[in-house]
Amino acid sequence: MAKKNVKARPSWKEASKEEVLEVVTKLAKEGKTAAVIGQTLRDEYGVREIKKVAGQTVTQMLTELKLASEYPTDLLDLIKRAVRMRGHTKTNNRDTFNKVKLAHVESKIKRLVRYYRGKKLPKDWQYDPEKAALIVK
Description:
The chain is mainly α. It folds into two domains: 17-64; 73-136, CATH 1.10.287.10. Helices cover 62% and strands 0% of the residues. It contains seven helices and no strands. The chain is elongated and about 55 Å long.
């Protein structure tokens, strides 16, 4: 028997939209990402499906409250990884495996930039490793 896609609130948890919105606001002001906020709501507050309880996703709530980050989180995570790898390459110049993987990560970054350009990034935004290190810090 197939599971029905039910849009109703779960009956086992009595969390209101206001409570969820309050927790999201508090965690966002602490600097947590949308993924960490969702995980905290699931683990500590027992809210399994935020969209069914609040009517919108965590990311939608953050943009509505103007607490969302300027750049998408998946792009920021890749940029952080590239900055760490670039620093490792400066101190360990002979690590060819790291150089190859750095090229792979920067390729992923450039693909994501093409995807987000015009949507969440300005149309003229380009990935530059030196400027990217400033964005992350």
